[in-house]
């Protein structure tokens, strides 16, 4: 069975060893391929799964895609501990080592430019959610009271009460959303001033993410690794001033949001 080369990231040479038991996509351990003073972190993958046609079919399989993305991320996370990687697109595959070297030569100037910019930096993700649980709880309680009144025969009064309660609950939810949006704007301004760079992403769809509440801020911040503790403390201080608003902090990650074209759509090389 022919083995292809799966490329996770490009980085500068590093001294620290990766975890001894680290495995990547298709269960193969990653290795370093050095060319022109740069390192491509690669592993071998079977042609039967990663040649152009089968790979395109696999990318439509959510279970396969999820498992592959997790294995890919596992290697990137390990690299982030020991160096500053420039992550490549999921499923960047080449025929052999020569193909990887040709890719490095073709993009060498861009690789070096981005690596210079990202050196010593990590990415932190911050999300802000509006959480209208109190309004929803009041809505449920009000519905229960209306039902009780209807049974006792006070239909007209309970109807007016119900409509009044619905208006109050709607206003309460709108108020929570407005406060969350204003808070998110202030938080993003403060965090952007602290960070080297920032990116605003589209709010996440709750139906897809499974997260509770309404996502009103979905941002990434490029922060010097040495300043990460201070950045986390800044986010924690802001959380205390946000009743009814949930702030979610994730990281540190490799700087996916700041790598330009290198970490976008899957790429398949012949």
How many domains, in number, for the residues?
2
Q: Give the integer mean of the pLDDT values.
A: 85
**Rg (CA only):** 25 Å
- The succession of helices and strands, N to C, reads EEEHHHEHEHHEHEHE
- Give the termini separation: 17 Å
| Distinct helical segment count | 8
Helix content: 40-55%
Q: Which spans of ≥5 residues are poorly predicted at pLDDT below 50?
A: 145-154, 264-270
Supply the helix-strand structural class. alpha+beta
Portion in strands: 15-25%
β-strand number: 8
Biggest beta sheet attributes: 4 strands, antiparallel
Tell me, briefly, the overall form: elongated
Read across the widest sheet, the strand sequence of neighbours is 2-3-1-4
Layout of helices and strands:
Blueprint: E1 3-11, E2 31-35, E3 38-46, H1 47-50, H2 52-58, H3 62-82, E4 86-94, H4 97-118, E5 121-130, H5 133-151, H6 155-194, E6 197-200, H7 206-209, E7 214-224, H8 228-239, E8 245-253
Provide a quick synopsis of the model.
With 270 residues, this protein is α+β, with helices and mostly antiparallel strands. The protein has eight helices and eight strands; from the N terminus they run E-E-E-H-H-H-E-H-E-H-H-E-H-E-H-E.
In words, what does this structure look like?
The longest helix has 40 residues, at 155-194. The strands form 2 sheets. The chain has a 4-stranded antiparallel beta sheet, with helices on both faces. The chain has 2 domains: 3-119, no CATH class; 123-257, no CATH class. It contains 8 helices and 8 strands, in the order E-E-E-H-H-H-E-H-E-H-H-E-H-E-H-E. Strand 2 (31-35) and strand 3 form a beta hairpin. It has 270 residues and is α+β, with helices and mostly antiparallel strands. Pfam families: GvpL_GvpF. One of its GO terms (biological process) is gas vesicle organization.
């Amino acid at each position: 069975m022919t083995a292809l080369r799966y490329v996770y990231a490009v980085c500068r040479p590093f001294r620290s060893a990766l975890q001894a038991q680290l495995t990547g996509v298709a269960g193969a351990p990653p290795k370093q391929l050095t060319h022109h003073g740069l390192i491509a972190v690669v592993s071998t993958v079977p042609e039967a799964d990663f040649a152009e046609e089968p790979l395109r079919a696999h990318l439509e399989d959510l279970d396969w895609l999820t498992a592959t993305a997790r294995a890919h991320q596992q290697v990137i996370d390990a690299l982030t501990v020991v160096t500053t990687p420039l992550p490549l697109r999921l499923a960047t595959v080449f025929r052999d080592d020569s193909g990887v070297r040709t890719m490095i030569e073709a993009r060498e100037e861009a690789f070096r430019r981005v690596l210079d910019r990202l050196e010593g930096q990590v990415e932190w993700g911050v999300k802000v959610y509006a959480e209208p649980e109190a309004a929803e709880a009041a809505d449920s309680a009000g519905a229960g009271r209306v039902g009780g009144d209807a049974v006792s025969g006070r239909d007209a009064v309970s109807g007016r009460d119900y409509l009044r309660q619905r208006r109050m609950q709607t206003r309460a939810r709108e108020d929570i959303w407005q406060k969350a949006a204003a808070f998110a704007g202030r938080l993003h301004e403060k965090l952007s001033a602290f960070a080297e760079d920032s990116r605003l992403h589209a709010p996440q769809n709750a139906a897809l993410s499974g997260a509770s509440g309404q996502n009103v801020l979905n941002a990434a911040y490029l922060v010097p690794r040495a300043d990460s503790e201070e950045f986390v403390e800044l986010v924690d201080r802001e959380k205390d001033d946000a009743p009814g608003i949930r702030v979610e902090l994730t990281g540190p990650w490799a700087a996916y949001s700041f790598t330009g074209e290198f970490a976008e759509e899957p790429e398949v090389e012949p």
